[in-house]
Protein: LysR family transcriptional regulator
Amino acid sequence: MADWDDLKVFLAVARGESLSRAGRVLKLDAATVGRRVARLEQALDARLFTRSPQGYVLTDEGGRLVAHAEAIETAMERAAEALAGPSEGISGQIRIGAPDGCANYLLPQVVAGIVAQNPGLEVQIVALPRVFNLSRREADMVIAVSKPEQGRVIATKITDYHLHLAASDRYLREAPPLKTLADLRAHRVIGYIPDMIFDRELDYLADLGVEQPPMASNSVSVQLNLIRQGAGVGVAHDFALPAAAGVRRVLTSDFSLTRAFWLIRHADDRKLPRIERFAAALVAGMRAEMRALEGQLQDG
Structure:
C-alpha cells in the first residue's frame, strides 16, 4: 500500500522529470527522492519510470497512476482547508505563470494589492516568454494570450488589451517622417524573433508585412527597452507604456491590435476555495489595472 508522502514524491518526479528538480520542489536531496520512488515502486509492484541520462520518463503504469495521485493531492488540499476552518482571507502559496509583458507591467501592482489584503498569502510570479505546462504543475494558474482548445482546464477571459506602434521622442526627432504605414520602410522595426514566437497571437508584425525585424527579442521587456533607447519603432502593449518615459504611440489611426488575456487553471482546482478566491481577486484586479493603465497614454 502506497502512502501519501511517497505519492507526493512520485508527482514531483513526474512533473519535473528528474530527481534533482523534484528534490528542489520538495526540499529533499536527490538520493532521498530516488529511494522514495524505489519504495513506491516496490509497494505497488510496478515500474513507474524509465530512467535515462535525459531524466525520468513515466512508464504506462506511471502514467495511469498520475491521475489517481492528483485526485488524492486535491483531496488532501481540500481537507487541509476544511481543517483550517472558514476564512475570508487567502493564505498559502500560489504560483502564477505569465508572459513576461504581463508579468512585468501588469501583475506586480495587482498581486501587491492582493497580498497586502491577505498577509498569510505568498505569491510567486514566473515570467517566461513561453507556454506553461499545467499538467506538470509548473504553476497553479497561468495567464495566456489564447484560450486552450483542449485539456481539463478552466479558462476565464480576464480582459482585452491593446497594442500600437510606438517610438521614443528622441527617435522621432532624428528619424525620417512617420506619417503613414508606408513610411515604415524607412525605419528600423523592432519585434519578436520569428522562430521564437510561442503563440500565433503574438505575431504582431505579420499584419505589417514585416517578416524579419532588424532588431528582435523573445522578451516584451527587451523590445520595449530597445524602443526607449531610440533603436527604432515597435509594437508595444498600451498597458506597458506608462512605465516607459519618453515613449509614445504613433500611427494609432492606421494600426491597432486587440488581444486578450485568459486565466487558465486545473479543472480540479474549482474545488479549492483558496484558489477560487485568489482567481476572482486576480481577475478583478487585472481588469481594473488595465483600465487605469490604458487610460493614461500619450500619442504622437
Summary: The chain has a mean pLDDT of 86. Residues 6 and 81 are 21 Å apart (CA to CA). The longest helix spans residues 60-84.
